Amino acid sequence: MNDDVRNIVLGVVATAVSGGFGWFTRTYLWRRALRRKQAFFGLPTGSDCLFVVNRQMGGTENSLHRNDAFALLEISALIKDCGATVQVVTHEARQGFGERAEFCVGGPASNSRTVAHLHSLLPGVRVDQSTEAGPDRGAIAVGGETYRWEPGLAEYVLLARLTTGPGTRPVFLLSGQTANSNRAAARYLARNHEELARGHRGKSFCLVLKVVNSDAYGPDVTELVADVTAAARTPAAAAG
Description:
Protein name: Secreted protein
Strand content: 15-25%
Organism: Streptomyces katrae
Radius of gyration: 22 Å
Oligomer: single chain
Distance between the termini: 86 Å
Keywords: Membrane, Transmembrane, Transmembrane helix
Order of helices and strands: HEHEEHEEEEEHEHEHH
Largest sheet: 7 strands, mixed
């Protein structure tokens, strides 16, 4: 074998080894990212989860606002990525929590299961459920602050990941003042789940998000306003 042939053979071998190592590295990193994503959402491969849909405020009992439907699509993509399946149920479902992951969408005015989760898991949160127009309609009060809905300008939504103990699956609560804010929370969760997983390390959290100038931007411009986990998890009377 002359030098030219030997160099060609060595080049081919080096390329194969390099390509194989690169494939292995990419596969390892992809699998590690998938495992972290599955752990954060409580969705191991082949598992089942609940998606609890609300009713459209002001609509019929079985109607669903199109932005809430879009929220379902945003979350369904996450569920599919994890290799899990989803069961869609109405907000009147009578089921416990912790055995399988759950995504509950809608504020207490349109979702009775949200009412139950706020009472049981976030006792420090108060949401105004009045139906009459006024400055406090839909306002979210937590941690000594009140977040008021300004139609078209500012909408607020609670985004929470809640667990009741080791080994239990999380409940994700997206409780907004409008259907648009529900969709914004779903989009924020989809885009920022890696950062949220690193920041909270598998623990429960409750965030207040603000949807800015929704008349112009829809659900696309969303800001993190506050992490209210401690205040939201503490009963209001005790917090006072």
